[in-house]
Amino acid sequence: MSLMRRSRTARTGRSRAARTPGPRPARTRGHRRPGTLLTVTLLGVALAAGFLPSAQARPAHPAPPEDRAERAGAAQRLTVDLAAPEGPVLRGANGALYGLSDDGVPGDAALAPLKLTSVSQKPQGGAQHPNGDAVTVSESYLRNGGGDILVLMQDMYAKWPYEDLGIDDYLAKVDTVARDIANAPNSDRFVYVPFNEPDQIWYDLGVADQAAYEAHRDRFLRDWKTVHRRIRAIDPDARIAGPNESAFHAGLLTDFLAFAKKENVLPEVTTWHELGPDSLRDFQGHHDTYRAIERSLGIPPRTVNIDEYANRRDLSVPGQLVQWVGMFERNKVYANQAYWDAAGNLSGNVVRTNIPNGGWWFFRWYAGLTGQTVKVTPPRPDTVDTLQGLASLDTARRQAQVLLGGSGGDTDVVVRRVDPAVFGTAVTATVAEAAWSGYEGQHATPRVLTRTKLPVAEDGSVTVPLRDMARMSAYRIALTPAGAGMPAAASTPWTASHEAEDARITGGQVRTHGTVSDANGYAASGTQDVGSLNTAASKVDFEVTAPRTGRYDLAILYGNQSGAPATQLLSVDGGPATPVSYPSTENGTYRGKKDTGVDLTAGAHTLTLARGTGEVTLDRIDLTEHTTPSAAYEATLAETAGSVSYDYRDASGTGTGALVLGAGSRAVLDVYAPRDGYYTVTPRASAAVRLSLHGEEVTAAPGRGLRLYLVAGNNRVTVTGAAAVRSLDVTGEGDRAGTLVHEGERAALAGGARLVPNAHASAGSHIGWLGNSAASTATFTVDAPRAGAYVLVVAYGQNDRRDGHAYNTDIMSRTADITIGAQTRRVTFKNTWSWDDFWTLGVPVTLKRGANTVTLSNAAAWAPNIDRIELAPVRG
User: Fold this and answer.
1) What is the pTM of this model?
2) What's the Cα-to-Cα distance from 46 to each of 38, 62, 88, 452, 494, rounded to whole Å?
3) What is the DSSP pairing of strand 740-743 with strand 239-245?
4) How many Å apart are CA 413 and CA 466, to the nearest integer?
5) pLDDT at position 18, please?
6) What is d(CA 823, CA 813) in angstroms, rounded to the nearest whole number?
7) Chain centroid to CA 584
8) CA gyration radius for the chain?
9) Does the CA dihedral 224-226-227-228 come out positive or negative?
10) Nearest to 829 by CA among 818, 813, 845
């Protein structure tokens, strides 16, 4: 589990090769037939229509050098058979171990869209980690539609591996855990996991000597029976999971299941871990073997939960995640990503509290699959680090979706047996990319690369060509019936990527991470980065070419191991340098993304990033021609409730038709904002609709933009009203006009709270020593221009932690009570990686017109440091 294994990446961020302990094969761990291509004539029609990628319309992150080797031959072919159903979409592989740390971390807007089916957490009061208590996090998890909560009972122990103090000591802990869960609200949603990796911990079931194995096995089986019956004595309706091995062992599973059946102590959920790259090759065989063992013993099929999967190099990487998720979904098993680093970010897929990265968007796509999954035949099934995928067909919605990734180069996706009764004679194929943006790197709404109207071939197939795929990206193809008209061409600004290891390096060192042989190393673009940029002369020179004179967005993938904000000096062609400030990251290889901008004339330039303060590791830069951020959120792909229907008679606009809302129905769209501020939100609808967000409901006329406040990251916007809705269009860069800003120095402080000088705070100081006493408060007086719904944005910093675990970074959250008038709300503030980094957290509040007091406090513990607060009406 996160808790686990012997091979780790050093705290400095430098990776080292994994060691494989034990006598049996162990995993390094982080806690068909091709279809028919379209004819040349059909491809020519698509090219003429301008819907295929060109030199000026590439995937958001062009393939790195190792991907280009995959393009040496013909395009790969991935085949989808819409007439070969595998069963209802399970969405079982979206879970995480210690994915939640506190109520509110991650935030509701990050949790709800993913439709999580299971998570693994520690018992209430468990000593293994300072947070992640199952009962505590269950409130936010369940209110956001979560499924089961697996409780790792041995995490009551403080040490890793767990202290072996004898079965009697453990039984006392079992009693405590069982009572807590039996008495918890929604106790039926918890699943007991009595043992974690018993093949390695306490029982040493991996010994080579058969006699020793049998003695150790028998001890484990006796203890399993004892603990199982102890749980049931306290909680008769308990669901219990096991044996929870660190890897799949057919012999041990056979012995365990035979014993458990004989003694009437079978688990309701069978669990084991798949934690190494070889699992991408071997899991199908493991699963088939397990089902054969069940049949041979006469045991009805159990629910399977692979409650730890993937290495560090996989987490947050869409192109890696799709390989794991595809095989788990195909076999209809549940699975939770491992916990290798910090709790509370869904295993590296949520940035800060509420901001998506590329991995989050992949799981958002996964949550959007509906209907039945259908057979997908990749070029090389069950092969590590190759093109894989999964697909769904919803005949009621008349939609098919394909998620794929894991390989660079060119791919033809052949969708076979497209039923004309469902899709008609032509389809719109909408292709989007979720790129890798790092563990701590924000990712905007996935860019639509192409919208193509394609006829269904005589043999019932449609071929969608993908070109210049990036190995670390995942792609979604949405197929919908194509009506009259043509979809709008996708808007893809010019972009180019440059790997740091390919640049001119002075005073730095190229390092390799996240390869198959270093699977528990952190992911890196192209598997390399440039570190040790720690001398006065250290710099990296990137040679770039701008196609036109103008403003360019510069995205820098980096790691900051300084323990505080760090800087580098950015210059163009040796000109004046401007500092680029990098927020802290967990370590030098826990990748974040810094967005800035440069003005360039057309032609060749040298962009230099030289050492400033602290030490920063560079991975890659992406240079993109600046355009005003905009996205069209397709209504027919939205989450819906109530009576809705789908109208595909018109293929214009997004090409995906219209969602027809009936009485009492609604659609929920996940809208991304790059920063806190105001954006123009425009419904493309047949009639007026109501939009709800942040406690405000507004009426929006069709085609008329509203100025609405969005918080940085994901915003859930609900659309209601009797109308046919095509899309919700969002544009803007986060205008802050009309926002009420109150720096910390404007607060009335009491009870020991005081201003502390801080060069990294927006006004040079922050409010510190707040809380830990009922008397310690900070009160702001705010003059609201009108009554109604506002967003309170708190800029804060805090770095509480309880480090000391073998490899997890035990960061801790702080809370503050926010009181406005007679209403008090407790808010959780995630750790910001250092005391000098200030993040923002948006909280919906209601203000009266005129003077309002906003008081922050915490009578029982320290509150976070406060830089400033901002208040803005939801409707600007």
Assistant:
1) 0.93
2) 11, 22, 33, 7, 21
3) unpaired
4) 8
5) 28
6) 23
7) 19
8) 27
9) positive
10) 813
Query: Do the beta carbons of residue 775 and residue 818 sit within 8 Å?
Result: no
Kindly report the backbone phi and psi dihedral angles of residue 87, in degrees, each rounded to the nearest multiple of 5, phi listed first.
Answer: 125, 170
Q: What is the pLDDT of residues 49-72, one digit of tens each?
A: 332 222 222 333 334 444 443 445
Q: Which are the contacts of 442, defined by CB distance < 8 A and separation ≥ 6?
A: 351, 355, 356, 357, 593, 595, 674, 712, 713
**Is the link from the previous residue into 487 a cis peptide, with omega within 30 of 0?**
no
Residue 675 in tokens: 């920063």
Between helix 167-182 and helix 210-234 the angle, nearest 10°, is 40
Show the 3-state SS of 813-875: CEEEEEEECCEEEEEEECCCCCCCCCEEEEEEEEECCEEEEEEEECCCCECCEEEEEEEEECE
Beta-bridge mates of residue 617 = 559
Q: Find out whether 777 and 749 touch, Cβ atoms under 8 Å.
A: yes
Residues 6+ apart with CB under 8 A from 254: 293, 296, 297
CA distances from 874 to 664, 698, 789, 825 (A): 24, 10, 6, 19
For residue 181, what are the CA distances in angstroms to 376, 433, 491? Answer: 40, 42, 52
Q: pLDDT by residue (tens digit) across 703-744?
A: 999 999 999 999 999 999 999 999 999 999 999 999 999 999
C-alpha to C-alpha distance for 556 and 558, rounded to whole angstroms: 6
118-121 and 148-152 beta bridge pairing: parallel
Dihedral sign for Cα 88, 94, 100, 106, please.
negative
Query: From residue 190, how far is each of 185, 187, 272 by CA, in Å?
Result: 10, 6, 18
Residues forming beta bridges with residue 496, ordered by sequence position: 623
Compute the distance between CA of residue 265 and CA of residue 263 in angstroms, rounded to an integer. 6
Helix (H, G, I), strand (E, B) or coil at 286: helix
65: phi then psi, degrees, rounded to nearest 5: -55, -40
Q: How far apart are CA 134 and CA 120, in angstroms?
A: 8
3-state secondary structure 674-730: CCCEEEEEEEEECCCEEEEECCEEEEECCCCCEEEEECCEEEEEEEECCCEEEEEEE
Question: What residues of the chain score a pLDDT lower than 70?
Answer: 1-73
The amino acid sitting at 675 is R
CA distance 346 to 341: 11
Q: CA dist 293 to 230, 254, 280, 804, Å?
A: 27, 6, 21, 41
Q: What are the angstrom distances between the C-alpha of 841 and each of 10, 115, 232, 694?
A: 31, 23, 43, 13
Residue 653's Cβ-side half-sphere holds a number of Cα atoms within 13 Å equal to 21
- pLDDT at residue 839, rounded to an integer: 98
- Dump pLDDT digits (tens) for 290-315: 999 999 999 999 999 999 999 999 99
The contacts of residue 502 (CB under 8 Å, 6+ apart) are 65
Q: In whole angstroms, what is the distance from residue 235 CA to residue 170 CA?
A: 17
Spatial CA neighbour of 594 closest among 572, 628, 568, 612:
568
User: What six digits make up the tokens of 206?
Assistant: 């991996």
In angstroms, the CA 66 to CA 237 distance is 53
424-442 per-position pLDDT tens digit = 999 999 999 999 999 999 9
